[in-house]
Amino acid sequence: MANSSKMVHLQCNLNKTASSATYLLVTRHSLPTLLPTVKMAAKSLGVALVTGAAQGLGRAIALRLAKDGYKVAVNDIADKSDQLKTVAREIEQLNGLESHCVTADVSNEAEVEAMVDSVTKTLGGLDVMVANAGIITRGKNVTEYTAEEWDKIFAVNTRGVFLCYKYAAKQLITQGRGGRIIGASSIAGRKAGAYTSAYCASKFAVRGLTQSAALELGEHGITVNAYAPGFMKTALTEAFWDDPDTLLSKYGLAPQPSYKFGEPEDIASLVSYLASKEAHYITGQTISPNGGILSD
C-alpha cells in the first residue's frame, strides 16, 4: 500500500506467563478504519481461536469465521510466525475487527494455557475454539515406527487437541455463556489406511475425546464436535492431486472416476455452521466431508 497512513502496524511483545518460564511471541495488529477495502462489521459475533492457522485448513477456517463476524485469534508454531501475521492481516481486511496472533506449541500445556489467557485478555473473551493443528508421518509400517515418532504424532494430534479442549472449556465455563469447541479428526480416524498407523490412531482418539467432552460439558451450554476431512487439496496431498486413486487404494477404498479432492473452504463452511447458534443441538459428533468416498 503506497499511502503510509494505510499501513498495517505490527507490535511484537514477549509475554511471560506468571505460572511458567515459557515465552510466547504475541503479535497484535491494528488496521486504520479508513482503509477502503475493509468491510466494517457492525458487531462482533464473539471471539474465535483457531490453531494451526498459518496455512491450509486452519487458514481457511480462520478466514471464514472472520467473514462470519468473529474477532479471530490465530495460532501456529514459531517457525510460521510470518505466515501467521499475513493471515491476521487478511482477517482484519475482511471484517475490520481486531485479530490476534499467538505462536505456541499445542502439545505444551503451559503454552496452551498461556495462549488461551492471551486471547481472552486481548480480544475480550472466548466463544469458539477450533483445535485444528496436526501433523502426519507417512510411509512406515507399524514395525518401523519408533516410540519417539509415535509419541510426537500423538503429542500434537491428540494431546494438543485435549489441551485446547481443556483450557477452552475452563474459560467458557468461567464466562458462563456457553460456547463451541471444535476439533480436527480425519477420514483416517474413521477408516484406517496402511502405513499411517500413528496418524490414524491419533485421529480415532480425537473422536472418543470429542464424544466424552460433549457429555461432560453439555450442562454448561458448550457443544463439542469434530470434523473429519476426506482427502483435501492441501500441501499434505499435493503428490496425489493428479492420481487420487492411488491415495484411495492406500485406505482400501474403491477408485472413484468422478472423485475430486476437497478444498479447504469445504471444511471451513462446516466449521462455520458448527460454531453458529443454529448448531446448538449438534454435539458429540464427528462429521466427515469426504466427497462420498466413505459413508456411515
From TrEMBL:
Q: Which UniProt keywords apply?
A: NADP, Oxidoreductase
MF terms per GO, please? oxidoreductase activity, acting on the CH-OH group of donors, NAD or NADP as acceptor
Q: Which InterPro entries match?
A: NAD(P)-bd_dom_sf, Sc_DH/Rdtase_CS, SDR_fam
Superkingdom of source: Eukaryota
Q: Which family does it belong to?
A: Belongs to the short-chain dehydrogenases/reductases (SDR) family.
Q: Which PANTHER family does the UniProt record give?
A: 3-OXOACYL-[ACYL-CARRIER-PROTEIN] REDUCTASE, SHORT-CHAIN DEHYDROGENASES/REDUCTASES FAMILY MEMBER
| Entry protein name | NAD(P)-binding protein
UniProt organism field: Gymnopus androsaceus JB14
